# Entry
Amino acid sequence: MGIILWIIFGALAGWIASAIMGSRDGVLMDIVIGIVGAVLGGWIMSLFGQGGVSGFNLYSFLVAILGAVVLIWIVRAIRGSKV
# Structure
């Protein structure tokens, strides 16, 4: 049951980040963006001496959204430089 909750957590974080950044990549991509974004957000927060994603709480959710927004921004920067 734990993996299903993490997928839902990632989907919500990815969906909110996609809405913030104005991207429309679909539900599956929102899940991937949210999960990878949570990892990226945790890494970014560790650079500032803070904890990353530690469970299902508001702080972890905000860290995941932050990471997902940064991930979308990085992907857009890479795609933009190739065009």
Remarks:
- The CA atoms of residues 37 and 68 lie 4 Å apart.
- The chain has a mean pLDDT of 84.
